[in-house]
Design goal:
Helices cover 10% and strands 34% of the residues. With 148 residues, it is mainly β.
Length: 148
């Protein structure tokens, strides 16, 4: 088993780095719910990757993200999770708690910030989000960006 340090966390640097994607410029996006517990990332699953801070100054954090779509180029689109409360904020969708948070805290998904991930830039398939909660996120992405 590989021990990860802050420097070698998957998705942090190089060609498999997690980057921010402009949701209005990614082209046609078809979100799908297709989790398969096979160790590979699939839409509907929560995985872990390095997420750069919005300041884009090289800092970031290893955190859970919800994979929402697979791109033709083999990359994935995802939205980040946070345990910080965001009640009443339309850019955040409440998804409750799950096995991605060891302490059982409630989580919110940020639909305002879309990330592009590479399969080699992710680790630890945490779990599949149930279809009902995935559809809440999918609905907000459709409202916001017109994604199907």
């Amino acid at each position: 088993m590989t021990a990860f340090t802050e420097e070698n966390v998957p998705g942090r640097q190089g060609p498999t780095a997690t980057t921010e994607a402009d949701p209005r410029e990614v082209g046609r996006v078809r979100t799908e719910y297709s989790p398969a517990h096979d160790g590979d990332p699939d839409p509907g699953e929560i995985v872990w990757t390095w997420v750069p801070f919005e300041e884009n100054d090289g800092r970031g954090k290893d955190r859970p993200v919800l994979v929402v779509a697979r791109e033709a180029a083999g990359t994935f689109l995802a939205v980040q999770l946070s345990s910080k409360r965001h009640d009443g904020d339309r850019e955040w969708v409440a998804i409750g708690s799950g096995p991605w948070d060891r302490t059982g805290r409630d989580s919110w998904v940020d639909v305002d910030r879309v990330l592009r991930l590479h399969e080699e830039g992710m680790r630890r398939e945490a779990c599949a989000l149930d279809r009902g909660r995935f559809n809440l996120v999918r609905h907000r992405l459709h409202e916001r960006y017109g994604w199907s």
